[in-house]
Amino acid sequence: MQIRFFCDQMLGNLAKWLRFLGFDTLYALGDMMDDELMRVCKAEDRILITRDKELVVRCKKQLIAVVQIGCDGVTDQILQTIQETKASIDRGHFLSRCSQCNCLLERIEKKTIEEIVPKRVFDSHDDFLYCSSCKRVYWMGTHTDSIIEKLLSLQSSITD
Ligand SMILES: [Zn+2]
Q1: Which domains can be identified in the chain, with CATH numbers?
Q2: How many whole angstroms from 104 Cα to the centroid of ligand 1?
Q3: Ligand 1 ion: Cβ-proximal residues, 5 Å cutoff
Q4: How far apart are CA 20 and CA 22, in angstroms?
Q5: Which residues pair with 26 in a beta bridge?
Q6: Ligand 1: distance of its center to the CA of 127 in Å?
Q7: Reduced to 3 DSSP states, what percent helix, strand and coil does the chain have, rounded to the nearest 5?
């Protein structure tokens, strides 16, 4: 089974990058209580990711898997998470999820999104992905190229 995560309120950027890698990653909303976070992790077999030392202690008592982030940069945070959980990075899963809401993206026929995306984007791209939850449309471009480049460099720094 693929590994699943739950990032606490402080780690939104890490959550976004774990989604770029293709991991099923929830992100705690601002008013979510620690008890609720822990309950979901237990119910859905998710690994909790936090910087909160007290929360780490509580999780360990309840046998909830937890990663205690100890670094600031998001690259280091991703590496720590992947290494501690022994998650495997699979290029086939890159950019398969909506970075905003974690849903798996679906391929969508080009003609159906003509009214939605800017004309220059529509004219210069053929492959579009769609999030059925937040209705965002994604396409491959210079932005995604630079994300994929970073994901590949993360992958190689872990396998080396
Ligand atoms: Zn979405």
Answers
A1: 4-93 (3.40.50), 106-159 (no CATH)
A2: 8
A3: 98, 100-101, 131, 133-134
A4: 5
A5: 6
A6: 17
A7: 45, 15, 40
pLDDT in tens, 32-54: 999 999 999 999 999 999 999 99
pLDDT digits (tens, 9 = 90+) for 72-128: 999 999 999 999 999 999 999 999 999 999 999 999 999 999 999 999 999 999 999
- How far, in Å, from the CA of 30 to the mean position of ligand 1? 18
Ligand 1 centroid vs 102 CA: distance in angstroms?
A: 6
Cα dihedral across residues 58, 63, 67, 70: positive or negative: positive
Determine the Cα–Cα distance for residues 17 and 69; give it in Å rounded to an integer.
15
User: Which of 36, 124, 113, 51 has its CA nearest to residue 81?
Assistant: 51
61 CA distance to ligand 1 middle (Å): 34
